[in-house]
Design a protein that fits this description.
This protein is an alpha+beta fold. The protein has one domain (5-157). Helices cover 24% and strands 42% of the residues. A six-stranded antiparallel sheet has the order 1-2-3-4-8-7. The chain has a four-stranded antiparallel sheet with strand order 6-5-9-10, with helices on one face. The protein is globular, with a radius of gyration of 16 Å.
Length: 160
């Protein structure tokens, strides 16, 4: 843990907003969106971060986009609109599955364009994501809770 009280507070704030698990074999803390059944990441579309802390370093962090709905989109592209500015993410590899609902998930590394988009999302007033397939699309409004969660984790990983 960093020596600074501000750093510790930022890390605690971020970790209180995410699900995390310690893997003793890899000496790694794995971080994902919260898994509460009634939370904003349960049974809904969302934008969040996923990654790990290992040997006091933030590793493999990704910006994650999840569509959750009743119809298959067969999404291959995403468009993120932040306060009127579009960020296009084309040719993404989505994983897909279903139960009574469908989910399609893609992610991009949290560096370069991915970091730029994550920061824009966390600071934006009006943020929407369009999941785009060949014939179908679905728009998701990114709520303030998701923006705050992304912002908190972005602040915290600066200390690793």
């Amino acid at each position: 843990m960093p020596d600074s009280q501000v750093a510790r507070d930022n890390i605690i704030d971020a970790f209180s907003r995410y699900w995390f698990e310690y893997d003793k074999f890899d000496n790694t803390i794995k971080i994902e969106p919260l898994r509460y059944l009634t939370g904003q990441y349960s049974r809904s579309s969302y934008v969040s971060l996923r990654g790990e802390i290992s040997n006091k370093k933030a590793k493999n962090f990704r910006l994650v986009f999840k569509y959750y709905g009743s119809q298959w989109l067969f999404a291959k592209d995403l468009q993120v609109n932040v306060d009127g500015k579009n960020y296009n993410l084309n040719g993404l590899r989505f994983s897909r599955d279903h139960t009574d609902k469908v989910w399609e998930v893609a992610s991009i590394p949290l560096k370069g364009k991915g970091l730029q988009i994550a920061k824009a999302i966390s600071q934006g007033e009006d943020v929407e994501v369009r999941f785009k397939g060949k014939q179908y699309y679905h728009d998701v409004r990114v709520n303030n809770g998701m923006k705050k969660d992304i912002s908190a984790m972005l602040k915290s990983i600066e200390y690793f």
